[in-house]
Amino acid sequence: MRTVRAVTELRSALAPDRRAGRTIGLVPTMGALHEGHLSLIRRAREQCDVVVVSLFVNPAQFNEGADLERYPRAEERDAALAARAGTDVLLAPSVEEVYPPGFATAVEVLGVSDRLEGEIRGAAHFRGVSTVVTKLLNMAQPDVAYFGQKDAQQVVVIRRLVADLNQPVRVEVVPTVRESDGLAMSSRNALLDPDERRRALALPAALRAACELASVGERRTGALLSAAAEAMAPFDVEPEYVAIVDPDTFAALDALDGTGLLVLAARVGEVRLIDNVLLAPVATSIAATAETQTSAAIPAGASSGMPTSHLHQGEPTTCSA
Ligand code: AMP
Q1: Residue 310's domain spans which residues?
Q2: Which residues are part of the catalytic machinery?
């Protein structure tokens, strides 16, 4: 694996591959790599000839200075993990390389960027994401770019900008990878103290509660959302928001007539966590294959005794409704 810090270095590293017609996959990350990131890298390794991983903690998308300051950084460890997962080129630019003096351009995806995460974190958040993703796509010019379902609203924003700006790239979305107790993997999990780590199970418990209710036929979003919020109470965690939205547009849904995405954010201590689960129509119900049934479903410990749901580790987080 080769580490590059400058855009010119990246371009020359990739030029022979591009000339030879080899496919290039890009996995943008902010580092502090965990199994979630590694699943994106492995997917890129399977599908592309050349795998580029970017490590860049993007100041433009942080709405809180303290969050940016305490964001975990571990480049040496990340480089070893990325190499082991099959990365060919690691792009680790400085802030000045990405935003040189005089930098004055922004990419803004209207509409979806204003809701939920955008409303809570402010317009600058998705503007920062959209701008840096556009820049990374221009820097690496990949055939495929890989993103996690864990950041579902980010995926919708990125799909929009790729379509609107005629970016010649395919966006591939990889299922959320979870800890064995159901907590979605996140670089921010490392900032939780032991008590907060236990309380963070409020998030998978909420997803599970809504899934269970949907799986017995509940269609009213109000009832599903109340079930999710109530499941969080024993953990002493309140949702910052919990909503059921159209997975493609993030528009709020009044009823679960087709597929809906339950999205959730909560603060546990100082750490802000997000998660989501797809509530799918009844036709795909219990259609879990033998393989998915043996993969790690969120165990009962994550749910304060709620029954097991169809939320699987490493599988699309689809719950039958
Ligand atoms: P981040 O470093 O948090 O910006 O994440 C980089 C990429 O990894 C994004 O596309 C995330 O959606 C994805 N990602 C983060 N956590 C997970 C996870 N638990 N499972 C799958 N993908 C993830």
Answers
A1: 193-320
A2: 37
Is the minimum distance from the CB of 182 to ligand 1 under 6 angstroms?
A: no
Q: Domain check: are 146 and 235 in the same one?
A: no
- Same domain, yes or no: 56 and 154: yes
Rounded to the nearest angstrom, the distance between the alpha carbon of 293 and the centre of ligand 1 is: 24
CATH number, position 57 = 3.40.50.620
Q: What is the pLDDT of residues 43-69, one digit of tens each?
A: 999 999 999 999 999 999 999 999 999
Mutate to test the pocket of ligand 1, among 29, 35, 37 (most ligand atoms within 8 A of CB): 37
Q: Is residue 182 part of a domain?
A: no
Q: Residue 35 C-alpha to ligand 1 middle, in angstroms?
A: 9
What's the number of domains the chain is made of? 2
Tell me how crowded residue 106 is: count the other CB atoms within 10 A of its CB: 13
Cβ 147 under 6 angstroms from ligand 1:
yes
Q: Based on the domain organization, do 245 and 309 belong to the same domain?
A: yes
DSSP letters for 236-260: T--EEEEEEE-TTT--B-SB-SS-E
For residue 186, being part of any structural domain is answered with: no
Query: Ligand 1 pocket, 87 CB below 6 A?
Result: no
Report how far residue 174's alpha carbon sits from residue 130's, in angstroms, rounded to the nearest whole number: 19
Q: Is the CB of 184 under 6 A from ligand 1?
A: yes
Residues 6+ apart with CB under 8 A from 164: 109
Are 159 and 202 in a shared domain?
Answer: no
Q: Give the three-state DSSP class for 144.
A: strand
Lowest-confidence segment of 101-105, 115-119, 302-306 by average pLDDT: 302-306
148 in contact with ligand 1, CB cutoff 6 A: yes
pTM: 0.91
CA of 174 to the centre of ligand 1 (A): 9
Encode pLDDT of 7-24 as tens digits.
Answer: 999 999 999 999 999 999
Strands 144-148 and 89-91: unpaired
Task: State residue 222's pLDDT score.
Answer: 96
